[in-house]
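Record passed on underneath.
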Amino acid sequence: MKTVTKENRSHFPAYVLSANILKSAPCPLLRSNQWTREAITTTWKNESKEELVMLWLWHNGEVREFYRLDPMTVTKTTVLHGMGIMIVSEATHRCLYNQVITETVAHDF
């Protein structure tokens, strides 16, 4: 597996969640705190053969695409403490992760 590092960017495209993705979430969507805080480095290990999408669930209800996680890749990203994050599979229309970031995260998919 290769390892990549992705840095914050300033452009967050709007993203529409399908009904199947919403139904597959393990719990109701966990949105960002209104005021996010310091940056945290996180690690996401995508062991699947498909690209996954990291979404930022804004406190005001908007859903924005944050990063794309390449297949068979460990991705180091910077996120903000208090961000609501969802990882989705567009291929299977499933939610794989839905949490508010409160500490350093390392997660395998």
Notes: The chain is about 5% helix and 45% strand. The longest helix spans residues 19-24.
